[in-house]
């Protein structure tokens, strides 16, 4: 989930070659009559190994089709290639996307909607997902994605430091203050017992990190932004400014480091020098490997409302002018298989989207994952728009607009006005992926 670098692009290319080679080897043992399903995704590292294991299990469970995955570098290159494949008639049978990117693709005809009756035949219905996750799959009334998980922005905490600070409740869980004053007081108690800071939160030069925490705080005011195409962005100025002020308050060099980068924040918490770490669930394995005595939960409702920023890895049907209906049937079967097998996916920290998995007693014994599973009921995704979502320039632009206000503690109103103007300018442009809106030249 980190921004792309030259190294990650190169690794992505190597991963593609390796995945293709491995798929070819695996295919040698399958029935010659099995249909080959092309599945594109961007999952690498531990996530890549886990999804491949689930795919291998699906291949071994039947002989009607064989899934041949292609792994591409995550970010703009992936989404550009997927859009070009859909527009050019060379789309794979199935692909992975972040749910937040789907609103930019579905209106342009780059994705085909899922048939709810066919999903139900495979045991997948709306009732199997939390409200926020299911709502994230819908664009203009149709379901265009099926979520595998939710990966929220959460709080990891060092149980030894927090216990010494007296901020754990009777169940040994971190307290959940619901006012700014109580929250800052708790943070200062933790700071008094930490070798480093109360909170490790890396943000310098990291637009996505700033947005994840900001939009969590913004939504905790009980509101969300709306970005109507061709209209004016609906943004609560008071909530916007209040959220930035809180972000500035926590980087006072007591609660949090005013010069923290994402990497330095990870290092501080991994070394046991801070009491809390705000990050994505994908860092859970890193901290477990580091041996940190930890637990996890959602960021407390600082402004009174439960809300947590998140995105989801989802499955989509890239548009095909004349889809092979038998292959489409295989795609439905595969997605249902992966959803029902997603307990293993939780090992990476993600919350399985399929409720029968998280409601199973086995999952409730998975700690600390089970301790933030309730986040699935309080997720907030990027405001739906063609330019928002994971890996988009939107997050980078946000960081550039608000960074100075967060670090200096001034210019909050100006940052709000600049952000409003920036979004309004983008909303006045056509969606470049939607041919009905014309060119964005």
3D structure, described in words:
The protein is of the alpha/beta class. Helices cover 41% and strands 14% of the residues. The chain is built from 17 helices and 15 strands. The chain has helices at 6-27, 45-61, 76-87, 102-105, 116-121, 131-135, 159-164, 180-191, 207-219, 237-249, 262-270, 284-289, 325-340, 355-358, 361-364, 393-408, 412-427; strands at residues 35-41, 65-71, 94-98, 111-112, 138-139, 142-143, 146-147, 149-158, 199-200, 276-280, 294-298, 308-311, 313-318, 351-352, 379-380. Strands 8, 9, 10, 11, 12, 14 and 15 form a 7-stranded mixed beta sheet that branches. Strands 1, 2, 3, 4, 7 and 13 form a 6-stranded mixed beta sheet that branches. The chain has a two-stranded antiparallel sheet with strand order 5-6. Helix 2 (45-61) links the parallel strand 1 and strand 2. The protein is globular.
User: What is the gyration radius calculated from CA atoms?
Assistant: 22 Å
Biggest beta sheet summary:
7 strands, mixed
Distance between the termini: 30 Å
Q: Any low-confidence stretches, pLDDT <50, length ≥5?
A: 1-30
Count, helices:
17
Structural class of the secondary elements? Answer: alpha/beta
